[in-house]
Design brief:
With 227 residues, the protein is of the alpha/beta class. The protein has 9 helices and 7 strands, in the order H-H-H-E-H-E-H-H-E-E-E-H-E-H-H-E. Helix 2 crosses helix 3, helix 5 crosses helix 6 and helix 7 runs parallel beside helix 9.
């Protein structure tokens, strides 16, 4: 009886998985070393686009290696959290990844176009929720999404007396659907838990790999008095 019971569980599991296929997380079709080189080239291009000079250091090399490793290796997480202080390269890393996808034009399965990532500011998510809810609903479910500056948006917005939590609802849906998401934030993990609550923090723990940017700002302030 015990053996039969185990077999029945396995049969049921396979049947349920066939009804709801598991999503395969996106990976770059290359070795980690090549992904590192692509990311490095793309970051250099982003820096030069802003009329700055790229300077490598141990922090940047580690960030690049961590990003390249995650993008080319099997992982149960389906997102990345780039966290750290202001001006230390998080948004640049996100934009570099976007440019790589645009350059490589990696084909999706079943001739369904090529991969690309949409990047939006967290404040814009709140704006859409209040002013264009249909566009907000579509944004929630895009295949690959980059959220820049998480934590700068209002947690709640009101529309005709209805209270919405735009980013919380978006992250909840993307967690449930296991949708590829890259997030940049100046908040620490502890601040994220305090800002969004245990429920979202716990989901993010499962959802994302964390890459910490410990280096200081690259935006040198030439003003005598800090602003």
């Amino acid at each position: 009886m015990e053996t039969t019971h185990k077999v029945d569980v396995e049969v049921l599991k396979k049947s349920l998985l066939q009804r709801r296929p598991m999503k395969e997380r996106f990976k770059l079709p290359m070795a980690e070393e090549q992904a590192y080189a692509y990311l490095l080239a793309a970051i250099k291009a982003e820096v030069e686009y802003r009329h700055r000079t790229f300077c490598s250091n141990e922090d940047v090399e580690k960030q690049l290696h961590d990003m390249a490793s995650w993008l080319t290796s099997p992982s149960s997480s389906f997102g990345i959290l780039l966290c750290g202080g202001c001006g230390n390269g998080k948004s640049t890393m996100l934009k570099a990844f976007q440019q790589i996808l645009n350059y490589l034009r990696i084909s999706k399965p079943y001739n369904d176009g090529t991969y690309g990532i949409q990047i939006v500011d967290a404040k814009y998510i709140a704006y859409l929720c209040k002013n264009n809810y249909e566009a907000y609903r579509k944004l929630i479910s895009v295949e690959m999404l980059g959220i820049d500056d998480l934590g700068t948006e209002p947690t709640e917005v009101m529309d005709y007396g209805n209270v919405y939590t735009p980013v919380i609802d978006l992250l909840t849906k993307r967690y449930e659907e296991q949708l590829f998401t890259i997030i940049t934030t100046n908040l620490t993990p502890q601040q994220i838990r305090g800002h969004y609550g245990d429920r979202i923090a716990d989901r993010l723990n499962e959802m994302v790999k964390k890459i910490v940017f410990n280096n200081g700002t690259y935006r040198t302030d030439k003003l005598a008095t800090p602003v």
